[in-house]
Fold this protein.
Amino acid sequence: MPDRPTDWDATAYDRVADPQEEWGREVLERLDLRGDETVLDAGCGSGRVTRLLAERLPRGRLIAIDASASMVAMARQALADSPCRSVHVLEADLGSLELAERVDAVFSNATFHWLLNHTSLFERLAAVLIPGGRLEAQWGGEGNVAEFTRAVESLLGDERFAPYMRNATRPWNFASIADTEDRLRVAGFEVDRIWTEDRPVTPADPQAYLRAVGFGSVLRDVPAEVADRFVAAVTGSMTQPLVLDYVRINVSAGRL
């Protein structure tokens, strides 16, 4: 079953996504392109990094997808005057992805941990890649933002929030290197390199950052005033000054 799509506040996300752009630039540096390939951006978000990818494809084709309608709308604006020969920005679920043609490479930045079923995800990515095609990706791995996730879990049952949170889902999948490598191999990838790195972030406005970036579907269908109190409670329960202990898993792999 596909993961349930989650919409985001794309404007708020774009405003605070400097760390995500920094990570994305580093992943782009690993992607060797001539400039005439067809590349899939799997989880384009607001388009900040997608635009940088487009600049590397002046004679190529870029397909950018995201499950969030608001992210897709903002990414289309960001790419409106792109130097890439052909750009298509689509609203789609990566877990059930289908494309009319195969791509030469898949790029993804800060996305895969939002999909719970990585087995299906990697199978779909392998299906849209040509044999020998490249996957260069980075996302949240085992231990990612551990203090934040503990704070969220502990407050879901708080009497102030429990009536609104009974059906809240834990939207993240912070998988281990071993599990990720096994799933990639089963899906048809040869893993050249897989590693994790610590990337701590100290947001200037912790509540605004966490509201825009951290909660995914936890606050789906929660009244705005309750969501605001929940975000404040989570932030207040964490060590101050707030430092988010990001752990990023990186993958360089080829389609067999």
DSSP finds ten helices and seven strands in the chain. Residues 1-5 have pLDDT under 50 and may be disordered.
